[in-house]
Specification:
The structure holds 2 protein chains of 2 kinds.
Chain A: H1 4-12, H2 14-25, H3 32-64, H4 71-120, H5 123-128, H6 131-173, H7 175-181, H8 184-222, H9 224-229, H10 233-285, H11 291-333, E1 362-369, E2 378-385, E3 390-394, H12 401-408, E4 416-421, E5 424-425, H13 431-437, E6 438-442, E7 450-451, H14 452-457, H15 465-475, H16 478-483, E8 491-492, H17 501-514, E9 519-523, H18 531-545, E10 549-553, E11 565-570, E12 573-578, H19 580-586, H20 589-597
Parallel strand pairs in A: 3-10, 3-11, 6-9, 9-10
Antiparallel strand pairs in A: 1-2, 1-4, 4-5, 7-8, 11-12
Helix pairs in contact in A: 2-11, 3-4, 3-6, 3-11, 4-6, 6-7, 6-11, 8-10, 8-11, 10-11, 15-17
Chain B: H1 3-13, H2 15-32, H3 34-48, H4 53-102, H5 105-110, H6 113-156, H7 158-205, H8 207-212, H9 216-268, H10 274-316, E1 336-343, E2 353-360, E3 365-370, H11 376-383, E4 394-396, E5 399-400, H12 406-412, E6 413-416, H13 427-431, H14 440-449, H15 453-458, H16 476-488, E7 495-499, H17 507-520, E8 525-529, E9 541-546, E10 549-554, H18 556-562, H19 565-573
Parallel strand pairs in B: 3-8, 3-9, 6-7, 7-8
Antiparallel strand pairs in B: 1-2, 1-4, 4-5, 9-10
The chains are: A alpha/beta, B alpha/beta.
């Protein structure tokens, strides 16, 4: 939704966006030569436009007004006129294509660079930036920036040049009359400036209220069921009426201003012609100019208005390009907090299965962390997970379990302490190696538009169909995949509407396995499943965990009952550890958790 | 009402406005075509050499006055038609929204929000454009074309007019032929753009996964392919567009040359005056405008009629859940009974509910357990008449709910959905959704009962804090608790339904909320669906659904003794071993 206030603020900060724009102008530099060709073609086109009235003037003064006119010269000039027209149109045609081509290439480069940069940023960036905004950055902001090159620059060159050339032609014809005509220019400029503010305001008002109306409609379509069940149709409709009325009112106001502006321009144009009739007519009467010159002048004065009008309209393009440039620049200038090591540790790959040569020992050395400096989420966490062991983490929501895993995968970097794998700080690995070693399965399963197989191998060509299928078999997903129309080639969408929660979860397991990690993290991966599906998954879990270090965060304690070791977390600290038996005997936090999640802990049911 | 009827009745009810507007544009065009004629006469007077300063001033004033008349009349007509078109747009949007409100969940399940939004975003706008801009242009073009023709033929020369007209008459033809091509290609560009946006969305939303797997290069490659596709399709469009933009001026250029040579010839042989010749060149450029517009307007109207068809289809959908003709009126108390209910969703064969029978006495609590897809939510949806149950299967106080007024049924039920859907208003407005006029204290009470009050008080603007689209500012558990408050505030309801509404709430809060529910439900009949058995502590009766049928039922202890699905679930959740067997 467009927020008019923040847009207004942006306008004040135009100075900043100018530097952002400079940053983006760098994208145009490789096309400098192409731009020069475009300018040359534009000049040819405009020259042909300016010459046209001149030709008619010649016909009138040299061929028609004379006492014995002849057809021959007229035909010659007619032919010339046609040739000039064709040349002009051809130049314009070439210019247009070339410019669009340049524009497209510039947007393409900005898009790719922007996408690459966004994807390289740390999770902290995504925590503070809405996905919707980022998508707009990539799709429409890039387009707006390219409009700067294809529309704004073109207009400045084309309209500017044509004003200049028309002025030149007028001066050549009769400098006194020309100078008088130029008086109309400041009037045009003043009127444009006066209207511009009103036009922009009303345009913004309409856009804002339109997006409110559409947003409201979208939301109500999504929540229609709730509206109906709570029987609030008439209240919601009244609100819609209110929003619709406001938008319509704004829309009519905007239209009124634009009609007023266009007609004023129209009136001004005609008024100038009338003035030309008067002044030019007097000049003809006093024999200072010929009739043809008068004709040419009335034509030229009309040619004046077109470019000036379109130039004033380009202000909007410039402004939206600037705002977009600033947005894109802001993203591009964001530095990545997660730094790649300068000399990453080199890890060798095992031949037989492509796994990295690691034992898989995970160690947290007195780790402290907070998403913001004021609020620590983890406090002095210190533990070691032995290679190929299976450990569980439990605790209330907000205890810091998922944060722990986010640190191990380097979604975030620790504030204090360090995390090591096989004794090597994870910040010394290249991220590629680290993420080859670790796989994480989360509660929310993301799917991509593509086939089942592509979703499992994440579109990586180096993972074979056989490896994908094997992983699916181990995860227990093979059966339902085969039952789908198309099997492994069945098409999935991002929302995965055609899959149940359980099936999506099985896919996520299979996906993690097809990457064949040394360390596997399950982050509440079974929370949204019903107990039955979870039981099925758990049976597969033993096979999945085989030969790997497995870290499991579980909502349901049953999942980790068999763990080699269980860490109980509370308020960012590890408060208890041990296996199930030991922890039950301690009769502390863990025992209480077990108690509370039991179905029949009814305190004195009355 | 179908959109065609809407448009007809709209036009009829405002026929005088339309008439005046069209008349104004007609008058405006009459004035506009006078200007070249005046200029032509002026040139003749100058050429004849007996023009005085007085005459010159007279002509100049003539031009100015005629031009002023034209501008005023045209602006007036244009404004009227534009305003009318926008009012029509308003009414179409109102009709669409009101219509959507009558349609049931089945409809919204079959249509995506984005798809429906396209109707209000694009189709309505396209219709308005045709009715406003299109109507303006077509009126202007018709009058201008007629007036210009009349002036050239009457004051200049029939033959000259006809001959020079030939090339520019091709203009609308070219537009009508090439226009749809341009539209098709630009649609393909739009498709490519939305493909790219979709990929970006997909990718940014899966960022943790992508980072965790270092999959960025693969994503970039997928993205690059789509960006490349946009460039290709865009250039494809540009190719056609540039040809288009060159051919049209070329045609008018040819006309001009024909007029120049033939007109020159006529001047030489004294068939027409020099002034007529000059006027004619002005008329020629005037003629190009309406012809260009004819072409574009035809395309615009074609688009609009396609849009209108789509709106037509949309409005033709009949609401499938409606009030009975003679609704039963009585003092409802809240007993629900279900008799031999079998149900399948339209278009899918497997039975979702299979001969379900159960009576929930007034004031009692029923717990429903079952795996995903066992039919729990469907059962609730049928009680709510979110979907229509078969006749004589679902009863409220002994009355088939299909014989109740829909609004009565829904006033009687307080419902907490699974996903905790909230609107982007303030948290207070969300809680008081069904009672907009309620006192703030009542909102606070409901909030405190559902354990969300503390969260609300910690928000920057307390109860008046906007919670963003679908309540994005809140966590899943907070959303569920707000949704519970929204149901609890509906104190007049006789039935309370919770559809797995505590799943995202931690066990401590769950215990607290259950305790409150126990206190407030009083005489209310309560139905709780849950995955976690702990949420069913207070149930007077529990049923276990499996593949749409009730497979077990009884009290907690009875069910444990049966050693079936329930007992197995219990063991898993109590932290024990599932029994295999």
């Amino acid at each position: 939704m467009v927020n008019p206030e923040s847009e207004a603020k942006r306008e004040v900060a135009m100075g900043d966006s100018a530097s952002a724009m400079r940053h983006l102008v760098a994208y145009a530099r490789p096309y400098l030569k192409e731009f020069l060709i475009v300018v040359a073609l534009v000049i040819v086109y405009i020259l042909t436009q300016v010459v046209q009235p001149w030709l008619i003037k010649i016909v009138i003064d040299k061929d028609l007004i004379v006492s014995h006119p002849l057809l021959g010269p007229i035909i010659t000039i007619g032919g010339l006129y046609l040739i000039i027209t064709i040349v002009g149109l051809f130049a314009n045609f070439m210019q247009n294509r070339r410019l669009q081509w340049i524009g497209q290439r510039i947007v393409r480069q900005i898009r790719v660079d922007l996408f690459r940069h966004i994807e390289s940023l740390s999770m902290r960036f995504f925590d503070t930036h809405e996905t919707g905004r980022l998508i707009t950055n990539v799709s429409s902001d890039t387009n707006n920036v390219s409009m700067f090159f294809t529309n704004f620059l073109l207009s400045v060159i084309q309209d500017g040049l044509s004003i200049l050339l028309v002025m030149g032609a007028m001066l050549l014809l009769d400098w006194k009359l020309a100078a008088l005509s130029f008086l109309v220019i400041p009037v045009i400029v003043i009127i444009s400036v006066l209207f511009r503010k009103k036009l922009r305001e009303s345009y913004r008002f309409t856009r804002t209220h339109f997006s409110r109306l559409i947003g409201y409609t979208a939301e109500n379509l999504g929540g229609m069921r709730i509206t109906q069940i709570f029987h609030q149709e008439s209240k919601q409709f009244d609100r819609h009426t209110e929003l619709n009325q406001r938008y319509t009112k704004g829309n009519i106001t905007e239209y009124r201003w634009s009609v007023l502006f266009n007609r004023t321009f129209d009136a001004l144009g005609n008024l100038s012609v009338a003035l030309m009739v008067w002044i030019g007519g007097l000049a003809v009467v006093h024999h200072t100019i010929e009739i043809g010159v008068l004709y040419a002048f009335t034509s030229y004065i009309r040619q004046f208005f077109g470019p000036i009008n379109s130039l004033t309209q380009q202000w909007n393009t410039l402004q939206s390009s600037m705002i977009s440039a600033e947005r894109i620049g802001g993203v591009l200038l964001t530095e990545n907090e997660i730094k790649e090591p300068e000399k990453p540790v080199v890890l060798r790959q095992r031949h037989e299965d492509g796994q990295l040569e690691l034992a898989g020992e995970v160690r947290f050395n007195h780790v402290s962390f907070g998403y913001s400096p004021q609020k620590t989420v983890l406090n002095d966490i210190d533990f070691t997970v032995l290679p190929r062991s299976f450990v569980g983490f439990v605790g209330e929501t907000g205890a810091g379990k998922s944060t722990l895993m986010g640190l191990l995968t380097r979604f975030y970097d620790v504030n204090q302490g360090s995390i090591t794998i096989d004794g090597i700080d994870i910040r010394s690995f290249s991220q590629r190696d680290l993420h080859r070693a670790i796989a994480i399965v989360q509660q929310e399963v993301n799917l991509f538009s593509g086939t089942v197989a592509d979703n499992l191998r994440l579109f990586r060509r180096e993972i074979s169909d056989r490896a994908v299928q094997e992983a699916a078999e181990i995860a227990g997903a093979d059966e339902f995949i085969r039952a789908m129309p198309g099997g492994y080639q069945a098409w999935l969408t991002a929302k995965g509407a055609n899959l149940s929660l359980g099936q999506r979860q099985l896919l996520a397991f299979a996906r993690a396995l097809s990457l064949n990690p040394k360390i596997l993290i399950l982050d509440e991966a079974t929370a949204s499943l019903d107990s039955h599906t979870e039981t099925i998954l758990q049976q597969g879990l033993t096979r999945i965990a085989e030969g790997r270090t497995t870290l499991v965060i579980a909502h349901r304690l049953s999942t980790i009952r068999q763990a080699d070791r269980i860490y109980v977390m509370d308020h960012g600290q590890i408060v208890e550890q041990g296996n199930h038996q030991q922890l039950m005997e301690q009769n502390g936090h863990y025992a209480e958790l077990v108690q509370k999640s039991a179905p029949d802990t009814v305190e004195a049911s009355d | 009402m179908s959109p065609k009827e809407i448009m007809r009745s709209f036009a009829l009810s405002r026929k005088w406005y339309y008439l005046i507007a069209i008349l104004a544009i007609g008058v405006a065009e009459f004035f506009q075509v006078q200007i070249p004629d005046i200029l032509g006469k002026f040139i003749n007077r100058l050429k004849a050499g007996h023009a005085t300063e007085h005459v010159v001033l007279f002509f100049a004033l003539d031009v100015a006055m005629v031009a002023a008349a034209y501008v005023v009349a045209f602006g007036f007509g244009q404004l009227q038609i534009g305003r009318l078109g926008r009012t029509l747009e308003f009414e179409l949007r109102q009709t669409l929204f009101a219509h959507w409100e009558t349609l049931s969940s089945r409809y919204f399940q079959m249509h995506s929000v984005g798809d429906l939004l396209n109707h209000t975003l694009n189709d309505v706008t396209v219709v308005r454009q045709a009715m406003s801009q299109g109507m303006n242009q077509v009126t202007q073009a018709l009058f201008l074309f007629a007036a210009t023709l009349y002036m050239t033929i009457r004051t200049i020369n029939l033959g000259l007019t006809l001959v020079s007209l030939i090339p520019i008459l091709l203009i609308p033809l070219v537009i009508v032929v090439v226009g749809p091509q341009v539209r098709m290609r630009s649609r393909r560009v739009q498709e490519a753009l939305s493909n790219m946006s979709e990929l970006a969305e997909e990718s940014f939303q899966a960022m943790q996964l992508i980072k965790a797997t270092s999959n960025e290069p693969v994503e970039l490659e997928r993205f690059r392919i789509l960006v490349e596709d946009i460039v290709d399709r865009q250039m494809h469009l540009v190719q056609l567009n540039t040809v288009f933009q060159a051919v049209l001026p070329l045609l008018s250029g040819i006309s001009f040359v024909v007029g120049l040579v033939y007109g020159g010839d006529l001047v030489i042989h004294h068939h027409i005056s020099l002034g007529s010749f000059v006027a004619f060149t002005a008329y020629l450029s005037m003629l190009v405008q309406p012809l260009l517009q004819f072409g574009f307007v035809i395309n615009m109207f074609q688009n609009a009629s396609a849009s209108l068809m789509r709106i037509q289809v949309l409005l033709a959908v009949e609401p499938d859940i409606t009030d009975p003709e003679h609704p039963v009126e009585k003092n409802w108390s809240g007993e629900i009974s279900i008799r031999d209910l079998s149900f399948e969703y339209p278009g899918s064969t497997p039975k979702v509910l299979d001969h379900v029978s159960i009576t929930i006495p007034k004031g009692s609590t029923l717990g429903i357990v079952g795996r995903t897809g066992s039919g729990k939510t469907t059962l609730l949806n049928l009680i709510l008449r979110d979907y229509d149950p078969p006749a004589n299967t679902v009863f409220f106080d002994g009355t088939d709910i299909r014989d109740m007024r829909l609004s009565d049924l829904r006033e009687l039920i307080a419902y907490v959905p699974q996903d905790g859907f909230l609107f982007s208003t303030t948290i207070g407005q969300n809680i008081a959704f069904s009672q907009p006029t309620v006192e703030p204290e009542a909102v606070e009470r409901a909030a405190s009962q559902s354990r969300i009050l503390e969260t609300i008080q910690s928000m920057p603007e307390g109860i008046d804090t906007e919670i963003g689209e679908r309540g994005i500012m809140l966590s899943g558990g907070q959303r569920q608790r707000a949704a519970i408050a929204r149901a609890l505030i509906k104190s007049q309801a006789k039935v309370l339904i919770l559809d797995d509404s505590l799943s995202a709430v931690d066990t401590r809060t769950e215990t607290e909320i259950l305790k409150v529910l126990r206190q407030v439900r009083g005489e209310k009949t309560t139905i709780i669906v849950a995955h976690r058995l702990s949420a069913l502590r207070d149930a007077d009766w529990i049923i276990v659904l499996d593949k749409g049928a009730i497979v077990e039922s009884g009290l907690h202890q009875d069910l444990l003794r049966k050693n079936g699905i329930y007992a197995n679930l219990y063991r898993i959740q109590a932290g024990g071993e599932p029994s295999h067997g």
